[in-house]
Each structure stands twice: as structure tokens, then as C-alpha cells.
Amino acid sequence: MTEITREHHEQYQREGFFVLERVIPDDHLQILRNSCDHLIELMHQEMDRLGTDHIHISHRGKRYHIAKKYQQVPRLSEYVFSPLMAQVCRATIGREAFLFYDQYVVKSAEQGSSFSWHQDGGYLGFPHNPYVTVWAAVDDMTVENGTTYVLPFSQAGVRTVVEHHRDEKTGDKVGYFGRETGVAAVVPAGSLVVFSSLSFHRSGPNTTNRMRRAYVTQYSPSPILSPETGDPLHLAEPFLANGEMTRSISRSQDRL
Prior knowledge:
By secondary structure, the chain is an alpha+beta fold. The chain is built from six helices and 16 strands.
């Protein structure tokens, strides 16, 4: 088991993030890769059915954002609700945890674009109990292939949600306009970048000749509800109760 130390916990509280290198078990890393390929193929099939090369902000052969699909792929739940994710949640948001969101972010070779500085909480648009984002490097991550950058709280100067503005050209929401460059996550495949929904982060373009894949899961200490309806936003899947895992993931015999 990976040891998440008191130093990791303290850095998260102080700076809003920490990095764990090569912690995803090999079998789970293979699940993440197979699942990504499978979901891209399903998206291509849907594009073909609709007679288009783009769905929302996903564009065939360029970039893919595939959200809330973990239940559609055999065995992906083994990673999403794994003991490793439980450790991360306990070290960041505490002993209660709900899966809030999951998403593949794929930048195709020489095609994937950059993303502007933002807080994940900035996309909610309302005050919330901070949740944790677990950004998994499915491939080796470099500056050249568009890895993520995290801005420590001490550099951002804030640790609350700030107003974000929509970039009319890219459609991105932008919340930081300062000069700090942040910390680049240059990490091998199987690593995790763990940061708060209050942490600013961005990513660069993929200028290499290989695809760059990341898988993001987000966990909240309580269900995040819509201020308008009171219904859960996105997902509200129970994961931890009083520090104990509430889901028992049986190993599927299916293979992708």
C-alpha cells in the first residue's frame, strides 16, 4: 500500500496539493488505459451515428473529454473505489467521501490544446465545501505533451473560490491572471496529482507525436447539491463512511 504521510496532508492543507509518483498498481494502470481506448471508440461510434466529428468539446482525433462514464466500462470501478483512492480521500477531505465526478481528458498527438488557469470550484459558480481532484497520469507526463500545472496557495494568494470569466475564444473559464507559472507535474505514468477544488491549475498543449491521457476523479465530503433544485450535481456515489469503504468492488471477469 502507498503511504500518504503527514507531510502530504500538511502540504495539502498549506498549499492545496501534493504529488505521488508511480503509485497506481500496474493492473489498475492497464485498466485505465484500456478503459480510455474503449470509451473513445464508443464516442467515435456515437459521432458516426450523429454524422459529426465533434460532441460538445470533444473533437475526433484532436481532444476528448469523456465524463461520468465509469460505469460503462468493465473494471474501471476497481480503480475509482480503490483502497488508494480511499487513502487519498482520508488525507484530504476526511473520513466521509462521495464520488462527485470522473472524466478522461485526452490530448491527441500535436493536436491537444491548452487550458487556462482555473479552480474546479470556479466551474460550480457557488460556494461549496471543498472537494478533492485526483489527476491520474495514464501516460508519462511532460511539459511538451501538456501536463498539468498547479499553483500553490502561497503563490495564488487566495484559498477561496474567486469569480471566473469566460474566455470567448476558447470557452474556458479563467480565474487567475497573475504572473506565477505554477508547479509542472512532470511525472511518470501511474502517478497522481492531488489538489483541492480551490487550487488553481492549468495545462499546456500537446506538441509531441503521442497521445496524452489523464483520468480525473473527484471526491466530495458530502453530496454537492444544486442551489436551485436541491438535487445532487453530477454524481453523489457513497464511498467512505466514518473512514471505512462502503463499496465492495468485485473483480469482473470481463476484459476490454
